[in-house]
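Q: May I have one protein plus its fold?
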Amino acid sequence: MLPSSLSTLPSPLTSAWFCIRAQPKHEHIAAAHLAQEAGVEVYLPRIRFKRSTHRGPVWFTEALFPSYLFARFDLRAASRKVHNARGVRGIVHFGSQWPQIPDDVIADLRATVGAEQIHVLDQELAAGEEVLISGGAFHNLKAVVTRVIPARQRVAVLLDFLGRQTMTEIPTSSLVRAENARKLAL
């Protein structure tokens, strides 16, 4: 619901970037509907990464900032249509304050994540990196990469198994990084 305080906003009719709250897991739907609106520019940074499942590693594409996206528009002229767009919960505000996001912040984010709006996280593993074994008998066991064997598409890992450290070789296709994907993206 939009408060009547929008009428007290400064009069310059210029567009600015605002943070939009979307329904959970519906950021892409909100972005698509907002992009169809005249005078609204949308930026939804997303990441593509592998996540461990019982079937093995699976590629996922998610919003870099879950439930949030950015839109550039004139708040006075377009606030109602933005607020009422499908998948949108509202424009982020604090009481009667409607914070604008500086253009250089969006430009820096685009430079980091990429202009394509989907940043694919590098899957190359390096010695010393902590990984999760995905699928199979060792599912969800943590290990440390000790050596990368590119010719055989395998890595040597050190894992704690049955109370002792064991060295073994595992196909790279059965491993995912243990670190949070969003941390890796930024």
Q: What stands out?
A: The longest strand covers residues 46-53.
